[in-house]
Amino acid sequence: MKPYHQTTAYTRQGMAGGFMDWANQPWPFKRYPDAPPQPLGEPRLPEASFWPSLLAWPPAPDAQAPPLDPAGLAGLLALAAGLTAQAHGGTYLRSPASAGALYPTELYLVASGLGWLADGLWHYAPEANAPRLLRPGNLAGAAAKVLGGRPRGLSFLLGALLWRSIWKYRTRAWRYCLLDGGHLLACLELALAACGLEQHPCLAPATSGGELLGLTPEREALVAGVGAGETVSEAGPEPPAWQPPEEEPLSPREQSDPTVAEAAALGLGERPGPEPDWPGEPAPVGAARLHPRPPEDGPALGRVMLARRSRRNFIPQGLNAAQVALLLAASLPMEGPLGATVLLGPGGDLPAGAHRYYPGDQALALVETGDRRAAAARACLDQMWVGQAALSLVLWADPARLDAAAGERGYARAMLAAGRAGQRLYLAATALGLGCCGVGAFYDAELAAAAALPSGAWPLYLVAAGPVKGGAPV
């Protein structure tokens, strides 16, 4: 994956001019003329409490959740990928964050043995908060071959419609597709747990997933999936060949990018890839131990997920150590493929500077003193609001470590994990009444220097958080 990451790195000297072809902007919703959505009725949101849900890893099924039914599935889908608001320009916002509000990630589900929903492959229509049946039949066995593990009553699959991101971000689009996939994955995992469902995520699905969904590889890529619910004993026979229902084009002149398509296909295999072992580094002597203590009377998970927005009107005010501890524990509750550097400004309990975060020990080690936020803002294409945020979480990867643990698929795993961590930071900030906004566009080498990253590290994502004007009411 090194050639793709290196060729899509931004530099000040290499940034070319361009324009947005607004007349050819992709439509935000997939449209199947012959597959109307099937209403599920009024959604019932889960009642799980926010902080216990967010801080648990792996996400633990809520033992108090009622059995899943149509209203429960409607609530689950609304939290995972549903519409939450309409911006002033008319753009619909959704539960997961998305670069440029382009929402390239599509959500599919395979149902088996539910009784109240026909067996088959369904596509989620967020504009209706309802699924549409694409392919009837018992496909639980086929989904299990894509995601690994036993056949289950529900299997969720995440596809990235490449043109939605290529339209704005061009060859760098695959980065955004993976980050956005991680955003939705985080929402889906939390929603499943809140609905009382066991889950088994897969960040390296098998190539047969594209065939199961009827995807055109250069147009839409399967990025991740989650098997959920109880196992089913009867998976059904091998599904016959099928022809996907007709789909309307995303825009008048839908286009592809061979570099993006090649990157999306890199590392895919005939079998789903198991989760690699990601041993973490212990915190060095002298690192500051954090002690995340969530409030006892926190809000409901569903309320926070629907209230999440991107807010960047930061004010010059620091964070206390308790707030920093909760934000970081929520973002990175486990070891994984990522490194994490935290840029803190003055005015809080912790010293200003660049700190390395160690998830296993929940500790911060000061790497460089001094306020480095302005340099990070300049590296983020001179978006100076970044420098006003009290905290910036810079997520990065060691390419040699990725290769050793996961081969060619390591890069995609890391980017998905960065999106997952970013979405969780969004949610934690929302619950604390703080603003939050992610940045995927930056001069790569400049951001690495501003954040004092280790030599050779690749910055993947910056997520800024802190107090904002007027607060962020839940």
UniProtKB/TrEMBL annotation:
Gene3D superfamilies noted in UniProt: NADH Oxidase
Cited CDD domains: McbC_SagB-like_oxidoreductase (cd02142)
Domain Nitroreductase positions: 308-466
Protein name, entry field: Nitroreductase domain-containing protein
Residues that span the membrane, as ranges: none
PANTHER family: NITROREDUCTASE FAMILY PROTEIN
InterPro entries referenced in this protein's UniProt entry, alphabetically: Nitroreductase (IPR029479), Nitroreductase-like (IPR000415)
Pfam families: Nitroreductase
Gene Ontology MF, one: oxidoreductase activity
Region (Disordered): 227-260
Highest taxon in the source lineage: Bacteria
